[in-house]
Amino acid sequence: MNRLFPLALLAGLVVLPLGLGTNPYLLNALIVTGILTIGAMSLNLLLGFTGQLSLGHIAFFGIGAYVSALTSLGFDVDLGFGLRAVHEPWPAWGGFLLATVAAGGCGYLIGRLSFRVRGAYFVIVTISFAEVVRLVALNWVELTQGPLALTNIPAITLGLPGLGIWTLKTKLQNYYLVLTVGTLCYGVIARLVGGRFGRAMRGLKENESLALSVGINATRTLTVAAVISAAMAGAAGSLYAHYLRIIDPDVFLFATTVTMVIMVVAGGKGTLMGPVVGGLIFGLLPVALRPVMAPEAQWIVYGLVLIVILFVMPRGIVPGLSALLSRRQARPAPVLEVNPAVQR
Fold it and tell me: 48-57: per-residue pLDDT in tens?
């Protein structure tokens, strides 16, 4: 069951656009939900498998978006002291790769600085980092255009020998691009948590003193997890920028981090499928509610659904359903008693 469900869900997502036809509204909702789900999966690597809550995770998402956009657009910036930084536009796929590397590098710096003082201190450091990055994007107008936003960001192009170059402009093309990147991120996380590195992360989460006593390097393990998590969030931000083709400092809104945390916790932190299930539910729920109720009522229902899920299944949807299925499978079959008189 655990192995078949991800494959069945992936197959369903592959054929889903065929049932939607050319409905641009639903395709747009699925694309944005998919991008946020990638961000939630990256956050789950820290929150779910190491127990470290990053409330500034949106910083890596935004860094990926801005780095990819600026790499693709090019820039000419005065650095002062007679120095100028000039960059000619690169292909969009180059911006995607550089965004992933840049976000991962920022994750390394934050990890090295803050994992020596974990817990609440790590939360404070991540929130502060996100706010600093937001202020840079807002005030460095010569580079980022500030509140005026970066516009005309080119779409991602893919080229294969003998097949030419494809510019991914349509919603259907972007849908399959997001699905592909999400599947790759899922595979990388599954590979990590299923091996020795995953056991080290879970050991630090469950009993750090015992993990340290058997030779696990806590700072190095958590820093590597932070780098991979930040890199995936940066990749999601890059997809977001090239899909919308416009980006402004609102990409750093704290509400987006809260949405990712809700997806992880409601779906089941520390599980592979938890962020995916939570992402689909809480990414598409506002879309389902929008035609039938006012915005204020939508947020009330959104909160009530979250409360009900956590009340009924405190560990999240995926662990709750797994436990329910295990209990049903373990239930002994009824024994039929035969009347001795009938046997004679």
Answer: 888 888 888 8
**Which class is 4-328 in CATH?**
mainly alpha
What one-character DSSP code corresponds to residue 169? -
List Cβ neighbours of 285 (8 Å cut-off, separation of 6 or more). 301, 302, 305
Domain boundaries, the chain: 4-328
Residues forming a β-bridge with 77 = 85
Nearest partner of 189 among 147, 154, 235, 145, judged by Cα: 235
Q: Is 66 exposed, middle or buried (0-12, 13-18, 19+ CB in 10 A)?
A: buried
Digit-coded pLDDT (tens) for 146-175: 888 888 898 888 766 666 677 788 888 899
List, in sequence order, every residue forming a beta bridge with 119; answer none if it has no partner.
none
Q: CB neighbours of 130 closer than 8 A, spacing ≥ 6?
A: 55, 56, 57, 58, 59, 62, 252, 254, 257
**Residue 215, Cβ neighbours under 10 Å: how many?**
7
* Confidence label for 132 from pLDDT (cuts 50, 70 and 90): very high
CA end-to-end distance (rounded Å), the chain: 45
167-175 LR contacts (CB < 8 Å, sep 24+): 168/242, 171/24, 171/27, 171/28, 171/31, 172/17, 172/27, 174/31, 174/239, 174/243, 175/17, 175/27, 175/30, 175/31, 175/34
Instruction: Give the pLDDT confidence score for residue 303 in this predicted structure.
Output: 86
Other beta carbons within 10 angstroms of residue 179's beta carbon come to 18
Strands (E) across the chain are located at: 75-80, 83-87, 150-151, 157-160, 164-167, 246-247
Has residue 253 got a pLDDT over 70? Answer: yes
Amino acid sitting at position 37: T
Q: How many CB atoms lie within 10 A of CB 336?
A: 5
Q: Quote the pLDDT of residue 331.
A: 66
Strands 150-151 and 83-87: unpaired
